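In this notebook, the sequence line spells out the residues, with the fold written below as integer tokens. This is how one looks.
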Amino acid sequence: MKKTWTVLSSLAVFIMFAGSAAAADVKTDIQAILANPNGFDGRKVEVEGRVESLRSRISGKGSPYTIFKLAEDGDSLSVFTLGDAHLKEGDMVKVTGMFQKIRYLSQYVFLNEIDATDGRVEKAGQLKEDEEPGS
């Protein structure tokens, strides 16, 4: 009985750590994602870049959202987030969110997009302010 309990406890601990590792953010760059979109599809990623083609909109249901291109060295990914992200063209940002190689929304198809709805979009200035006290 004690041996069974030990095995079950070990298995539970393994499952907890495996689950948290799978949910962890993958810190990467735009080029790596575009070189292997299948490898990142459905994974939570953290990427830095410059804001381009910024658009803030209101959905048909009245919800504000923001879309933009996250650019780095001539390559870019699309980013979607709910609400007004309070960004400007050219801002340097860090985006954390779920990468999707292909996302279908109603009659629309989006390619190579990071959905930051459950993640974050932070300006580079905010990053430096947040990181300085811990340095």
Summary: Residues 75 and 81 are 20 Å apart (CA to CA).
